Amino acid sequence: MKKIEFGGLTFTVSNDGKVYLTKLYHIDYTKNEASLEDTLVAWNHKESTGPVFCEFDVAGGSSSGTNRLCDTKATAAIRYVSHTEKDGVLTIVQRSDIVEVTSRFESYGDTNAFRVTNTVTNIGTEPLCIEMANTFGFSFADNWETENKDWYFHKFTNARYTESMPDVRSFYDLGFCWKNQVFQVVNVGNASAYENIPQGILENRVSGDFLMFQIESYYDWFYQVTISDDKFKLQLGGPTAIRHAWNKVLAAGESYTTVPAAFSYGKSLNGVLGEMTKYRRHIKAQNEEDRELPSIFNEYMHLSWDDPYESRTRALAPYIAETGCKYYVIDCGWHNSVECNGRIYHFFGTWKEDLGRFPEGIKATADYLNSLGLKLGLWLAPEVVGNENYDMIDYYGDECFLTRNGKKISNDTAYLLDFRQQKVRDYMSATIDRMVNDLGCKYIKFDGCPNAGFGCDRGATSMGDGLEKHIEAFLGWVDEMMKKYPDVIFEDCFGGGMRTDYKALSMFSVISTSDQTRYDHYPYITANIFASVLPEQAAVWSYPVDISVYDPENEDSVNDKVSMERVAINMVNAVLGRIHLASRINLLDAEKRALIREGVDFYDRIREDKLKALPYMPLGYARFGDKHLASGLITDEKLYLAVWNLGGERKINIPLSDVKVKEVKVAFPLSLETKFSYDETSLSVYFTEDYQARIFEITI
User: Fold this and answer.
1) In the predicted model, is pLDDT for residue 295 greater than 80?
2) Is the alpha carbon torsion for 196, 199, 204, 205 positive or negative?
3) C-beta of residue 353 within 8 angstroms of C-beta of residue 361
4) N or C: which terminus of the chain has fewer CB atoms within 10 Å of its end residue's CB?
């Protein structure tokens, strides 16, 4: 019997060579050391695989027709070969007659989080079809039946316009009053967070333990909880046969590596989020131009929508420069003819400037913005061609599109390109070259495309395999462009926040959190988003002049419809993340524009603290419809706390019992009256209106 200890992990190798995960942070499967060997013997004689940490299966295996993606015969056959530990990396090698499985664990000095992948290699002489290769799994609870009301699961739902909405339920309420229950969340397609963010939290309300995981996938993934050996068992990973129409045929000597996953542990919600946040900073995108977290104006929301014009951009730009924003992004439409009569999405794919919209050319607009101290940004949807852009459809030919059964994959407006094809990569590389070198673009917003569903069957062993190969090629091309243009900031978006994952965020500097259009709904997203995204990467819209107050026939009336408090809430929504200012702020008077500038100045002032701050949720998660919200960022010395009243009682008391409050002052807005009181353990805010928001700077 051999023990392997690594951070919060303990593995035990039984006398017959099976490798078990016998301790994970607080979860100890062998509490009595004297009984450890007896426990291992008992596991070896059960039909389940026991607490193993990696699972895989081959074609025809036991996972082919079951919801339970664990306890496979292929997994039970592997045995310990060796392990090494060096420079914060543990590698464990196991082998059977047909495969070698290499598990790689990475630790990080300032957090208890670890990262894991598995590499499955065909060591036989014949091709081997893999139908499942999970990234990690573990058991928890001594007995599922007596503890199903003690354990809770935090699922992060991600419906459009209500992104990052945590759903917390006991395992009893998830259906684990029956032993055969399977709870699972599955993502299918090329939008990684189409309905749920690839992360979750296990909470034990008896012990107070929290364990968090994230799956780092840009496309397919799953996690599931089942019951095995009278314990709950969590498995997670990327694509599988039964859920994603996926398999991978490995030639002799060929390998497949799973999508990465990461785990962290804490004794509170803030604690476990803090550990994961510190880990995320180790893997986040690195871009020197983005190091200062420049503020961004994007003219899409409540302004140009899909219909930008040179004259509008030039008229608005001086007001944007006045706010202190550093980038001016022209979103969807700069590339399409005004003659498409509102059917702009049907004509995507050429990506050349439209001189009907920009008569002097985009470069002239970029030069004008530069003269005001602004850098130009442009929007791009690189994965699609509109289904009425016949010139580009003919240019590419059918072989350049993702297909199923010989038919191009599409939605109502566009077809999906296949980035495995050199012709596609060449055209899109030339597009980026043109945007940067000819048009003067310094910020590129990548938007998403139709969801590919299971994927494509051309050039692949399965539809899921085709999707995986396409995504690998696409991200390889993205990486190539980023290395070619290190002075350009790249943003990732998919209809708002549909690509909220840490594969994307390990590459893109900024990610869209939502396309939410209501400023009084955005706080529900903002208050939760730092559980899923680093504050320095989470793009949040601020649009003080939305369409509910805009009258194109009487623009002079707009200012009277926008109160100072409305401006303040919009800015509070955005400044703790990555501010994306928008809307017709030129229609506001000087006092309100000064309030916007005050918000941008505050955003700039806390930049260094933001880069090291951790999430802080004194009221827990925000639930849609809550009247009082509070969420912030905390460092060793400061807590920046945003507080919203959304139609509730005007007095709000916020407990701060886990910090020692020394001093509280208003951080934003300084130009509006704010009444509050505090002691060492709480903050009370006395709002004067039904809809207001403030940010407090609390010295701790």
Assistant:
1) yes
2) negative
3) yes
4) N
Strand partners, 233: 139, 226
Q: Which structure tokens are listed for 119?
A: 């590499």
Query: Of 203, 346, 222, 337, whose CA–CA distance to 267 is shortest?
Result: 203
Q: How far apart are CA 201 and CA 105, in angstroms?
A: 20
Whether 164 shows a pLDDT value over 90: the answer reads yes
pLDDT at site 65: 65
Amino acid making up residue 248: K
Residue 599: what residue type? G
Domains of the chain: 2-283 (2.70.98.60), 288-382+422-451+465-612 (3.20.20.70)
> CB 260: neighbour CB atoms within 10 A?
23
Model confidence, pTM: 0.97
CA dihedral 17, 23, 24, 28 (to 10 degrees): 140
pLDDT at 430: 98
pLDDT score recorded for residue 28:
84
Q: What does the block give as tokens for 113?
A: 């989080």
The residues near 575 (Cβ < 8 Å, ≥ 6 apart) are 542, 599, 600, 602, 603, 668, 695
pLDDT at 398 over 90: yes
Are the CB atoms for 343 and 361 separated by under 8 Å?
no
Measure the CA–CA gap between 183 and 173, rounded to whole angstroms.
11
**From residue 166, how far is each of 173, 524, 621 by CA, in Å?**
15, 10, 7
